[in-house]
Design goal:
Number of helices: 5
Largest sheet: 4 strands, mixed
Radius of gyration: 12 Å
Shape: globular
Number of domains: 1
Order of helices and strands: HEEHHHEEH
Number of strands: 4
Strand content: 25-35%
Mean pLDDT: 79
Distance between the termini: 7 Å
Helix content: 25-40%
Low-confidence stretches: 85-91
Length: 91
């Protein structure tokens, strides 16, 4: 049910576990193509490793489960949901 709600968002949303994209909503698939199984930094930042200023890593270290970043390459805000056992158990 929750994934269906994410699919209806008008902006890209990714669900990430250990830097791997495990879900991309319809808008993310429209912009980035088939990204499930790829590393988030490869898709979002076009790099082979996490950038020095990784918003997702900072969110994890701060104990957050969600971060939103503006991606100038596509001119869109991206909502990134970071895997937490508790959060994923309800999806």
């Amino acid at each position: 049910m929750y994934l269906r709600i994410l699919d209806e968002l008008e902006y890209p949303a990714l669900l990430i576990k250990n830097f791997e994209i495990i879900y991309a909503n319809a808008k993310a698939r429209e912009i980035y193509g088939k990204v499930v199984g790829k590393k988030c930094y490869e898709v979002i930042h076009k790099t082979s490793s996490p950038p020095a200023e990784c918003h997702g890593m900072r969110a994890i270290l701060e104990g957050r489960e969600r971060v939103e970043i503006y991606e100038p390459k596509v001119g869109k805000w991206i909502s990134i949901l970071l895997e937490r056992e508790k959060a994923l158990s309800s999806i």
